[in-house]
Design brief:
Blueprint lengths: L1 E5 L6 H15 L3 E6 L13 E5 L13 H15 L4 E5 L4 H12 L6 E6 L2 H4 L8 H10 L2 E4 L2 H11 L5 E3 L16 H6 L5 E6 L8 H14 L2 E6 L5 H10 L6 E5 L4 H6 L3 E4 L8 H8 L4 E4 L4 H4 L6 E4 L4 H12 L2 H19 L1 H17 L9
Parallel strand pairs: 1-2, 1-4, 2-3, 4-5, 5-6, 6-7, 8-9, 8-11, 9-10, 11-12, 12-13
The structure holds ligand GMT.
């Protein structure tokens, strides 16, 4: 198949999922065209037939605000027409599903391109903060040929928030279990924990929903009982506040803010436990990548996290904001090496058995094939 993929190219989870999906599809023989405003972060190494088309923004002085939705739709039309795309798979509804709808309408009836929309989280939940988006997002979702969500939580949330009757198929986040595999001879271990301390890790885009200050507070409790270090990977709006808090608590020397990193499997391999106390998390891709490297997770019970983290087996779950309980769980695991090893094995097994690339990519391929077989059924406004 010839597949167009649009995503946010930055370090957010939806962009990572879209990029890893495109790379895996290309390895399986499909031609994949990424359409975005910048090169997606994980598109640094590719195998197979992968092309990248950059959306150009008009600089005309009359346009005080960038016309991204329009520019994206124009680029989609161009690529779909001249590369004869079969499918346009957009990740994150706002504004990608709207641009895809426009492109589909403009291309029809000479070309019946199928639009697949994958909902990732804040594209749906953000509407709670911006109610005026609702009609646009609902319409764009309903006009897609197929819709997927990354968890049952998000599927139900979308049904109820938008009153949508269209079927939303759950296709979870996935992980390359060969790449995200524990590497025992890891140089990061001695860098992070030179005296054999335990290593707690957090990976995110440091947005407020991630509750990074809670990570620092949990660690503050843990380090009083367990010789340990905290490693934070990523960057974003709450980084300064989290650094300030670590200084204020007097624990800065035991906390390392690494910023954005590409050697994630290596960093995770040097870690004993991941903390994910999010306020909102439709799936939790970073937690899955940690689990694939044999790192158990202590998380909040929010969103789709309970569909990933099995309480008492691959980690522990506590109510969002309950710093003391999360710290208690972390201490329980880190003070018992046999339990920690068992949880580590369980976490790896769950990632391999339920969320490996080999299991999940064929679900997307099947979805594309089914959409393509529904010839003409969705062309034009319903
Ligand atoms: O994690 C983020 O805030 C970024 C966001 C995105 O859309 O880029 O991630 C969402 O999609 C990921 C991939 O499907 C999920 O694993 C994350 O849970 C989800 N984030 C939220 O729901 C806050």
């Amino acid at each position: 198949m010839k597949i167009g993929i649009t995503c946010y190219p930055t370090y957010g989870g939806s962009g990572v999922v879209a990029t890893e999906l495109g790379k895996a599809l290309a390895v399986r023989g499909h031609q994949v065209h990424f359409i975005s405003y910048a090169l997606p972060a994980r598109l640094d190494t590719v195998q197979g037939d992968v092309l990248y088309h950059e959306v150009e923004m008009s600089q005309y002085p009359l346009f005080d605000f960038p016309l991204y939705t329009d520019s994206l739709a124009s680029k989609m039309i161009d690529v779909a027409k001249y590369h004869d795309l079969d499918v346009l798979h957009v990740h994150y509804a706002i504004p990608h599903a709207t641009s895809a709808f426009l492109a589909k309408q403009i291309l029809s009836p000479s070309k019946d391109i199928k639009v697949i929309t994958t909902l990732h989280g804040t594209d749906v939940t953000l509407v709670g903060l911006e109610p005026s988006f609702l009609p646009l997002v609902k319409f764009s979702i309903e006009q897609s040929d197929s819709v997927t969500s990354v968890s049952r939580f998000l599927q139900m949330k979308t049904y109820t928030m938008y009153n949508i009757e269209k079927e939303i198929q759950v296709i979870p986040n996935f992980v390359d279990v060969e790449r995200f595999k524990r590497k025992d001879d890891c140089q990061f271990r001695t860098r992070f924990a030179p005296h054999g301390e335990k290593v707690l890790v957090h990976v995110s885009n440091f947005r407020t929903v991630k509750r990074v200050p809670d990570v620092v507070r949990i660690f503050d409790v843990v380090r009083k009982s367990i010789p340990s270090k905290l490693v934070l990977v990523g960057d974003g709006p709450d980084r300064s506040e989290s650094e300030r808090l670590a200084r204020e608590l007097g624990i800065y020397d035991d906390v390392r803010f690494l910023g954005k990193q590409t050697l994630l499997p290596e960093i995770l391999s040097a870690s004993d436990l991941m903390l994910m106390p999010s306020q909102s998390e439709s799936f939790g891709l970073s937690a899955l990548e940690a689990m694939s490297c044999g790192v158990p997770v202590v998380s909040s019970s929010t969103g789709g996290l309970p569909e990933l983290v099995v309480h008492g087996e691959t980690g522990y779950i506590a109510e969002m904001g309950d710093v003391q309980r999360m710290a208690k769980y972390a201490i329980e695991l880190l003070s018992d090496d046999r339990k920690l090893e068992l949880f580590s094995q369980n976490a790896r097994k769950r990632a391999v058995d339920k969320f490996s690339e080999e299991l999940v990519i064929p679900q997307y391929e099947k979805l594309y094939e089914e959409a393509l077989n529904e010839t003409g059924a969705t062309v034009g406004l319903k």
